[in-house]
Amino acid sequence: MIPVLGGLDNPGQVLRKLIESEDIIVAPGVFNPISALIAEQVGFKAIYLSGAALTGSLALPDLGIITLDEVIYFTREIAGKVSIPLIVDADTGFGEALNVIRAVKLFEKAGAAAIHIEDQVLPKKCGHLKGKKLISLEEMVNKIKAARSAAKDLIIIARTDARGVSGFEEAVERALAYVDAGAEIIFPEALYSEEEFKEFAKRVDVPLLANMTEFGRTPYFTVDQFREWGYKIVIFPATSFRASVKTIKTVYEILMKKGTQKNILDSLATREEVYRIIRYHEYEALDKKLSSTD
Question: For 240-275, what is each residue's pLDDT tens digit?
């Protein structure tokens, strides 16, 4: 491996140790390698490859039309640049149980620490939108069992979208069945209230992942609140993507109107700041070393 690049040996084990040692893990959403590097350099101990952010960055809707190969490519590119574990949104597992087995093997090879699989029918929807449909409990259990049978180091997270389709009680029922099938972490999507998050944590006794997205059905809770309620991982899946879209639009509007960027230079990363993030000088030093005849 090139010394300046990242990558982890046994990333699943790294994430498991974090879950055991940390009271809560905050994993910001990333959608390309540089956003992942920034998150690591800011100090986050884990990151999350958001399906919504990734598809949005490719100008695609989050409707399950992104391919496994595309997600694997970005997983590999991101995991290979950082030295913190990457959790990946694997949508519905890219098919049925056999497809899930292949996906698990590819995600593990690409360097993911964990993936989550959801119990929606294709075409899937954002978990905070109306119109979702669920696969049967039996189908999802089979997918989780298939994933566990294929995983060596990879952590399998089961996401249930049942709250917004058939209610809180079915979300709990499904979560417990998914744990019995081998899921190590449960992701209850789009719970509606503080009371629901608390009750879910009381009744599902495994590490839990909370989704703190914007403009959704879940009110804006803080990391401290999720910590108090017993959640182990909090993701902010599309926050940085939405911020980047807003910033890019603003910059383009200024360029169109003013014909110059000189009045917004203090809002731009300098050349040296970008070089530090992407480790330009480390690559430069490595190139010099490799080229040396000494």
Answer: 999 999 999 999 999 999 999 999 999 999 999 999
**Residues whose CB is less than 8 angstroms from the CB of residue 139 and which lie 6 or more positions away in sequence, other chains included:** 96, 119
Measured CA to CA, the distance from residue 275 to residue 269 in angstroms comes to 10
Within a 10 A sphere around the Cβ of 45, how many other Cβ atoms? 16
Q: Does 89 participate in catalysis according to the annotation? A: yes
- Domains recognised in the chain with CATH numbers: 11-238 (3.20.20.60), 246-291 (no CATH)
Identify whether 48 is a catalytic site residue: yes
> Could you tell me which of 62, 189, 166 has the C-alpha nearest to residue 123?
62
Q: Is the peptide bond before 207 cis (omega within 30 degrees of 0)?
A: no
Give catalytic status of residue 91 as yes or no.
yes
- Is the predicted pLDDT of residue 170 greater than 90, yes or no? yes
Q: Rounded CA gap, 98 and 109, in Å?
A: 17
Please confirm, yes or no, whether 211 is among the known catalytic residues: yes
Give tens-digit pLDDT for 105-154. Answer: 999 999 999 999 999 997 665 656 566 789 999 999 999 999 999 999 99
- Percent of the chain at pLDDT exceeding 70: 95
Give the model confidence (pLDDT) of 189-199 as tens digits: 999 999 999 99
Choice among 40, 76, 108, 116 that is catalytic: 116
Give the residue among 95, 91, 96, 34 at the shortest CA–CA distance from 61.
Answer: 91
Tokens for 230, please give them.
């017993």
What H or E segment, with its residue span, contains residue 86?
A: strand 86-89
- Give which of 151, 157, 186, 153 is closest to 13, Cα–Cα: 153
Query: Is pLDDT of 2 > 60?
Result: no
279 is catalytic: no
Beta-bridge partners for 159: 118, 187
Q: pTM above the 0.90 mark?
A: yes
Q: What is the DSSP letter of 218?
A: S
